[in-house]
Design a protein that fits this description.
With 128 residues, the protein is α+β, with helices and mostly antiparallel strands. It is built from four helices and eight strands, in the order H-H-E-E-E-E-E-E-E-E-H-H.
């Protein structure tokens, strides 16, 4: 096969619909083995799409998704924004974050552990 034929085949494959289904573009991804998952908690609206080898959950609102692992009673908490996805493909769960990291920092928990030093040092009228 000549180099020209190879290039044409690559170009044709990259524009086909089936190739697009296998491509995931994201700012960051967390991958968890499905066998280790006990449950997934999502506290907002989402859309579920069934695939041949799994499913895709697309968030319709920002939330914090919690993946509870069956091993060692651990959990993974991930802040997610509208349009982010949880994708189950065969033995993997992909947590796909599509926004830049700065966007997720604005949606942090109100927990004292998530507050900055300046926020903790400020005194409110309640503490005086």
């Amino acid at each position: 096969m000549s180099e020209k034929e190879v290039m044409e085949r690559v170009e044709n494959n990259s524009t086909s619909e089936t190739a697009d289904e296998d491509i995931i573009e994201a700012e960051s991804v967390t991958i968890v083995n499905v066998a280790q998952i006990q449950s997934i908690d999502i506290s907002t609206k989402f859309r579920r799409q069934v695939k041949d080898n799994g499913w895709v959950l697309t968030l319709l609102q920002p939330c914090k998704a919690t993946v509870n692992l069956s091993t060692s009673i651990r959990k993974v908490e991930v802040p997610l924004l509208e349009g982010d996805q949880l994708i189950k493909e065969q033995e993997d769960l992909l947590i796909v974050r599509r926004q830049a990291a700065d966007q997720y920092r604005n949606h942090r928990s109100a927990s004292p552990l998530a507050k900055s030093r300046d926020e903790l040092v400020q005194k409110s009228p309640e503490t005086i």
